[in-house]
Amino acid sequence: MKAKVHVTLKNGVLDPQGKAIQHALGSLGYEGVNDVRQGKFIELDLAETDPAKAKAAVEAMCKQLLANTVIENYSIEIIA
Amino acid sequence: MKAAVIVFPGSNCDRDVAVSLEKSMGQKPLMLWHRTTEVPADLDLIVVPGGFSYGDYLRSGAMAAHSPVMQEVKERAAKGVRVLGICNGFQILTEAGLLPGALMRNRDLKFICRDVHLTVERTDTDFTRGYAKGQVIRVPVAHHDGNYFADDSLLERIEGNGQVAFRYASANGEVSEASNINGSRNNIAGVFNEAGTVLGMMPHPERLADPQLGGIDGKPLFDSLVEALCK
């Protein structure tokens, strides 16, 4: 069973790297990019076979290590 | 007084801070490897030094915050043992939940390595009693992730409690956007926990604590701790 975790900065937290990417896209001629938010994608291969248990475990992992909830949000997708 | 310096894989300021401590204390601090859980019971001070612990993977300080020795550090901090985190040490202490807020990538995305000026916001703590109220000190910074963030409500609480230790300022002590080197909220360069027993700061006092290094503005911090903690 696999879990896909997206970690992104919370709204209201400035994202200097996202801003730099936005400027770079602009200088490459890509117009109309209103905003860029950069985050992390983490893929986990889990021994667990129960989706609910897997989700609960990954949720705990996110809170304890994978995300810093002072500044980041996370979302979890479990793929059977 | 008994002090210990934690050493993680990737720490690189552990020896410098040990030298500074020894100069102020008159004896060498213990060096504690990150895997140890045997921490002497009678420690007065624990220093979490600068560097790039665990390669700063995931987030600066995130891995180190969960290393075996940090569980001990948390327990000691809860008992009032003084804890000082410098640079990566500050990042580790925020990740470990011992200090409020988080340290993000510098606003201009560059690694900043130079001397900066700081205002000393509090002089009634064990860390800063050797400074004068409103004193401006010159201390080096060397970091990529020093942009201090706290959301509005947390920031209000930190300011209300007087938890700000140092702010980035100009040479004459003006705290403004122009002197904010990395985008930190309210120019915060260092914060205390609520009790004032844990301090985290991005600048490196140990790098200007000896005349031969070109300045001694960092030395009063170590002298303060020795004065406060020597029984």
UniProtKB/TrEMBL annotation, chain A:
Instruction: Indicate whether Magnesium appears among the record's keywords.
Output: no
One GO BP on record is: 'de novo' IMP biosynthetic process
Any keyword Ligase? yes
Give, as in the UniProt entry, the pathway in which the protein acts: Purine metabolism; IMP biosynthesis via de novo pathway; 5-amino-1-(5-phospho-D-ribosyl)imidazole from N(2)-formyl-N(1)-(5-phospho-D-ribosyl)glycinamide: step 1/2
Q: Which domain of life is it from?
A: Bacteria
Q: What class of enzyme is it?
A: ligase
Q: Write out the GO MF terms.
A: ATP binding; phosphoribosylformylglycinamidine synthase activity
Its protein name is Phosphoribosylformylglycinamidine synthase subunit PurS
Q: How does it assemble?
A: Part of the FGAM synthase complex composed of 1 PurL, 1 PurQ and 2 PurS subunits.
Example GO CC term: the record gives:
cytoplasm
Secretion signal, residue range per the UniProt entry = none
SUPFAM superfamilies in the record, alphabetically?
PurS-like
What's its EC?
A: 6.3.5.3
**InterPro entries from the UniProt entry:** PurS (IPR003850), PurS-like_sf (IPR036604)
The text of the family note is: Belongs to the PurS family.
From TrEMBL, chain B:
Q: Which gene encodes it?
A: purQ
User: Can you state the subunit structure given in the record?
Assistant: Part of the FGAM synthase complex composed of 1 PurL, 1 PurQ and 2 PurS subunits.
Q: Any idea which UniProt keywords this protein has?
A: ATP-binding, Cytoplasm, Glutamine amidotransferase, Hydrolase, Ligase, Nucleotide-binding, Purine biosynthesis
* Location of the protein in the cell: Cytoplasm
Q: Which residue positions are annotated as catalytic?
A: 87 (nucleophile), 204, 206
Full protein name? Phosphoribosylformylglycinamidine synthase subunit PurQ
Q: What does this protein do?
A: Part of the phosphoribosylformylglycinamidine synthase complex involved in the purines biosynthetic pathway. Catalyzes the ATP-dependent conversion of formylglycinamide ribonucleotide (FGAR) and glutamine to yield formylglycinamidine ribonucleotide (FGAM) and glutamate. The FGAM synthase complex is composed of three subunits. PurQ produces an ammonia molecule by converting glutamine to glutamate. PurL transfers the ammonia molecule to FGAR to form FGAM in an ATP-dependent manner.
Report any Pfam family annotated for this entry.
GATase_5
Task: Give a GO biological-process term.
Answer: 'de novo' IMP biosynthetic process
SUPFAM superfamilies xrefs = Class I glutamine amidotransferase-like
What's the Enzyme Commission number for this chain?
6.3.5.3, 3.5.1.2
The record, for InterPro entries, names: Class_I_gatase-like (IPR029062), PRibForGlyAmidine_synth_PurQ (IPR010075)
This entry's Gene Ontology molecular function terms read: ATP binding; glutaminase activity; phosphoribosylformylglycinamidine synthase activity
Write out the catalysed reaction.
N(2)-formyl-N(1)-(5-phospho-beta-D-ribosyl)glycinamide + L-glutamine + ATP + H2O = 2-formamido-N(1)-(5-O-phospho-beta-D-ribosyl)acetamidine + L-glutamate + ADP + phosphate + H(+); L-glutamine + H2O = L-glutamate + NH4(+)
For this record, an example GO cellular component is: cytoplasm
Which pathway does this chain act in?
Purine metabolism; IMP biosynthesis via de novo pathway; 5-amino-1-(5-phospho-D-ribosyl)imidazole from N(2)-formyl-N(1)-(5-phospho-D-ribosyl)glycinamide: step 1/2
Q: What is the lineage of its organism?
A: Bacteria, Pseudomonadati, Pseudomonadota, Alphaproteobacteria, Rhodospirillales
